[in-house]
Amino acid sequence: MIFDKKFGNPTPINHGCHPLCAAVDHISPGNKESGQQIICYDLNDLKGHLPHKIFKELKFTRSWNELMTQWRRQTETNNMDIIAFKNILKD
After folding, report:
1. pLDDT at residue 46 is higher than 90
2. For residue 86, what are the domain limits?
3. CB within 8 A of 57, min separation 6: which ones?
4. pTM for this one?
5. Rounded to whole angstroms, what are the CA distances from 26 to 44, 75, 77?
6. More confident residue, 25 or 68
């Protein structure tokens, strides 16, 4: 994850916030008892568009595991290539 503030500010030059920029997230939105976690920006955005129940179930699917494998590989290959991360989420 990236904790540098300059990568968290969207601009036309860098195509929005960096996908690996750290974000604070509610583990279960609307549930104050569930706590918070640090998650990368794009995965938090993805999670935010799904009902919590569906997101929890999604984590156990082959497709999700493949996505996370691609995400990790990109992180290890070139964690500054924003377009590559965006393309992973488009597939």
Report:
1. no
2. 5-90
3. none
4. 0.74
5. 9, 24, 29
6. 68
Residue pair 36/25 in contact by the 8 Å Cβ criterion: yes
Q: Give the pair of three-digit tokens for residue 29.
A: 């939105």
Q: Which has the closest alpha carbon to 15: 86, 74, 76?
A: 86
Cα angle 49-91-78, degrees, rounded to a multiple of 5: 95
Please choose, from the candidates 17, 35, 39, the residue with its C-alpha nearest in 3D space to the C-alpha of residue 27: 35
Q: For residue 16, report the phi and psi dihedrals to the nearest 5 degrees.
A: 95, -175
HEC profile of the chain = CECCHHHCCCCCCCCCCCCCEEEEEECCCCCCCCCEEEEEHHHHHHHHCCCHHHHHHHCCCHHHHHHHHHHHHHHHHHCCCHHHHHHHHHC
The total domain count for the chain is 1
Of the candidates 3, 87, 86, the residue with the CA atom closest to the CA atom of residue 42: 86
